[in-house]
TrEMBL record:
Belongs to the 4-toluene sulfonate uptake permease (TSUP) (TC 2.A.102) family. It comes from the Bacteria. It comes from Rhizobium chutanense. This is Probable membrane transporter protein. Keywords: Cell membrane, Membrane, Transmembrane, Transmembrane helix. Signal peptide: none annotated.
Length: 243
């Protein structure tokens, strides 16, 4: 039980609290915190995705139970997302951490800006274009693996913006995220080895403890100020790493 291990528990707890209240940001918050702590980009993303296997499994099954999942959307989104996740994880694991770190931080700043945009101007409804679903899943999987998070903000925002039903999109992307996260995690285990991911246990413990509280906060906390706060933390922390 080292101080680092307790730090990972705290990171997992806080990230899951926010994710429970917003429906997104566990990955980007965890990865941003780990990068700021000095964890290499590949390890930070790998640890986050191993922890997310547990949180996304619970979330996906819950959405399926409440019939929020569009199985046709899942069938088109999941394969592309899994392929993209494997590609992104392989690239990240084979690139020097110091080289990729600024680009990962720049991507996280973009995600922070996207969350900030969503706080003030939710995407409007447009004509549904089903042909866009696989490319969106592929890009979401690649970016999620490289940045350690972003599947929810990128995929959910894009599909809702294209006119898909909000409830079905949230349920389907949450259910699909488990498959994408599992693929990314297995790719990292093959390329990095499990010994490099032991600290993910701290994230898992913190996330599991926080899960019930996140659901309770949905009813009590105003969403817009929380989204603004999360985006500011992500942008500020990532910007400091770049400069």
């Amino acid at each position: 039980m080292t101080s680092d291990f307790f730090f990972f528990i705290v990171v997992g707890f806080c990230a899951q609290i926010v994710d429970g209240a917003l429906g997104m940001a566990f990955g980007v918050l965890s990865t941003t915190s780990l990068l700021a702590f000095g964890v290499p980009a590949a390890n930070a993303s790998a640890m986050t995705h191993v922890a997310e296997m547990f949180t996304t499994a619970a979330s996906g099954l819950s959405h399926a139970y409440h019939r929020n999942v569009d199985w046709r959307l899942v069938a088109r989104l999941a394969p592309a997302g899994m392929i993209g996740g494997a590609i992104g994880a392989t690239l990240l694991a084979n690139i020097d951490g110091k080289t990729i770190a600024p680009f990962v931080s720049a991507y996280l700043i973009a995600i922070g800006l996207l969350i900030l945009y969503k706080a003030f101007r939710p995407p409007g409804r447009r004509e549904v274009r089903d042909w866009a679903v696989p490319p969106v899943g592929l890009c979401g999987g690649v970016l999620d693996a490289i940045g350690g998070g972003g599947w929810g903000p990128v995929v959910t925002s894009t599909l809702v913006g294209r006119g898909h039903d909000l409830k079905r999109v949230i349920g389907s992307t949450n259910f699909t995220e488990f498959a994408v996260t599992l693929t990314i995690s297995l790719t990292f285990v093959v390329t990095l080895g499990w010994s490099e991911l032991n600290s993910a246990i701290g994230l898992i413990i913190g996330g599991v403890i926080a899960a019930p509280f996140g659901a309770m906060l949905v009813k009590r906390l105003p969403v817009r100020p929380l989204m603004v706060a999360v985006s500011m933390v992500i942008i500020a922390t990532s910007a400091m790493r770049i400069f």
